[in-house]
Design a protein that fits this description.
159 residues; mainly alpha
């Protein structure tokens, strides 16, 4: 693996450490045949659950979506491609991971809708589509990804 030209941001270092931790646990429990995208997805689900349980339920969804775009999307192209279904049908390849991720996203969405911070006319597939779009934008325009992600998140907020 090539070393980056510049030092990693603190959030990228934390993400890398989290992925390595989940990889170690997963390989120890299930062997070396577990796909790397599955490991990254498990780390995202674990992080999302921690956000849901530790913070303001009205803001947990926004925090998680920001991390999916600005942290994971910026550092893990494999996860982004798998999430978008590029070259792989994730539902067929690792159905448990996809189901766990969508269930988590549903919990985050319901909590935010119940708290009154997210519109009630969006559902889980809508939110996943927004994340996929924002992750594509992160690859296309990384210099404006944070600002444009906030524009998208503002569109999810109740008026």
């Amino acid at each position: 693996m090539a070393l980056p030209d510049r030092p990693l941001r603190a959030d990228a270092v934390r993400n890398r450490a989290r992925v390595l931790e989940v990889a170690y646990e997963t390989f120890a429990a299930e062997g070396l045949a577990v796909p790397i995208d599955e490991i990254a997805r498990r780390a995202c689900v674990d992080d999302g659950r921690a956000v849901l349980e530790s913070g303001d339920p009205g803001e947990a969804l926004f925090t998680f979506l920001r991390s999916m775009v600005l942290q994971w999307g910026a550092t893990d192209r494999g996860l982004v491609d798998a999430f978008a279904g590029v070259g792989i049908d994730i539902k067929d390849a690792v159905p448990d991971a996809e189901d766990a991720f969508l269930a988590l996203l549903g919990e985050l969405l319901r909590a935010a809708q119940t708290a009154g911070t997210v519109r009630r006319d969006v559902d889980v597939p809508d939110v996943k589509a927004l994340v996929v779009g924002c992750q594509a934008m992160q690859a296309y325009r990384p210099d404006t990804a944070a600002r444009l992600t906030e524009v998208v998140l503002d569109g999810l907020r109740t008026s």
